[in-house]
Amino acid sequence: MDPIEAISSIQLVGGLDCSIYCYKLVTNNGPVPMISFVTSGFAEKNHPELAVHIKIQDEDGFEEYPPQSLDSHEDFLESLSVYKLFTLLFKICDNAPLTQRKTTKFSKGFLGLSDIKGVIYTVVNNFRYPDGILKENVLYFTVIALTQKELEIAELCPQRCLIKIGQAMDEFPFPIYCDRERNCSINPELDLSESIFNKSSAYNFPDCRVAYEHTDEKIKITIPKFELPRIKKILNGTELDSIVIFNSGNSPEIDSYINWNPEDTGELDLLNVNILSDPFRDRKITSGSFFGFVPSQEQDEAIFYEDGTNVNSLSNI
């Protein structure tokens, strides 16, 4: 199949361009009409480029799809507020760097919806999209829209939120586009008062990994060397009776994920927990969403807790 070509391109601000693509994306639910906004310019500032992929609805006014031109859809494009988001982030990224799994809040909504209160930035494998949309050897952050409750969860534990949205959209393990018609993936009335996150300080470490390896029947926490100074600094400033949460990320070898159940507010038995698995791979490595440092924990071992892992010592760091 020939690479998809941009149907339009616009200069947003000096040094930042946005290309627009219209196509049909192959998903688990069949082909989905999609419009993608992809930046070019953030890389010059040593930041990842951004991509917003949005499912087209009947109400968007396209008589055919993909269209031949977007000339008659300028109001629709402006209503999505994608240009405004890109321009804002480009202006502030030198002082407020874009980082994986970071969130941005909105007071007036996004994508034309008042109930979208924020977005989260995540990495999606480029092969999930047709050739031509994302350049090879360029890092992109995919922008995923969040409701108020999803934003609250994402600020506590980003991977937990992404897994829930992916499950709601039938995408494994995380969402790869924005669907303006979907319902909130988390009960808006959910009470988080008993969660470990309500009793701790949380920090994002998307390059760290916590996983249960089924062959060895062991929980393994992987921390890159470049993150060790930051973790040590956090731990050195922690009281002995405190709890510190390190939100972890994913990696290609992970084939399954603990699916957070809001009713699980304590230690988990992995044999009885809900696990989401890649339908095309055998389950060998199951990922948690965080590892917690809990000095008061009696067990001198790693235990599954909520959708993560708790330890009482990080003495080997």
Output the structural class: alpha+beta
What Rg do the Cα atoms give? 20 Å
| Count of alpha and pi helical runs | 5
Number of strands: 17
Mean pLDDT: 90
Uncertain residue segments: none
What series of H and E elements makes up the topology? EEEEHHEEEHHEEEHEEEEEEE
Largest sheet descriptor: 7 strands, mixed
Separation of the first and last Cα atoms: 49 Å
Structure report:
- By secondary structure, this protein is an alpha+beta fold.
- Helices cover 15% and strands 29% of the residues.
- The chain has 5 helices and 17 strands.
- The strands form 3 sheets. The protein has a 7-stranded mixed beta sheet.
- Strand 16 and strand 17 form a beta hairpin.
- Helix 3 packs across helix 4 (158-168).
- The chain starts with 7 loop residues before the first strand and ends in a 6-residue tail after the last strand.
Brief synopsis:
This protein is an alpha+beta fold.
Which descriptors would you attach to this protein?
single chain; 317 residues; alpha+beta; seven-stranded mixed β-sheet; five-stranded mixed β-sheet; globular
List the helices and strands and how they pair.
Blueprint: E1 8-13, E2 16-27, E3 30-40, E4 49-55, H1 74-79, H2 82-92, E5 103-105, E6 116-122, E7 140-147, H3 148-156, H4 158-168, E8 201-204, E9 209-213, E10 218-222, H5 228-236, E11 244-247, E12 256-258, E13 275-277, E14 285-287, E15 290-293, E16 303-305, E17 308-311
